[in-house]
Structure prediction request, 134 residues.
Amino acid sequence: DDPLDAVAVHLGGGVWGVLAVPFLDADLGLLYKGNRVSLTFIGWNVCGLVAIFTWTVVWSGIAFGVMSWMGVLRVSAEAETRGLDVVIHGERAYASLGDQRRKSRKVNSPVVSIAAGLSGIFPNESDVRPTTIQ
Prediction:
């Protein structure tokens, strides 16, 4: 679930930025110089991409693993079914659609509510009374 296209922006844009430089750099780029140094430049940037990817996977795995072990990675099945808009905010985000949205598809998203699990700022599920949709 990527409603904001974060993968396209951060992963796609980051990969493009790291790989575009060794091709388009006016002093060393493959398209301008086309020599052995240009190929080395590309190789180092590919190594950099592998390092960035590895770093991200390892630390994300550790962080999400710890949150999963603590039980704060996912919301309860009831909260997932009811929707976090009702559970956290006490109202439906798409009230004009009625219950059509909930009936049209099963909500099974990896979206996490870490703040709701770790902070006392948000109400507990039992404290929230769902609003009536008319």
Notes: Residues 36-70 form the longest helix (35 residues). The helical segments are 6-24, 36-70, 77-82, 84-89, 100-104, 114-118.
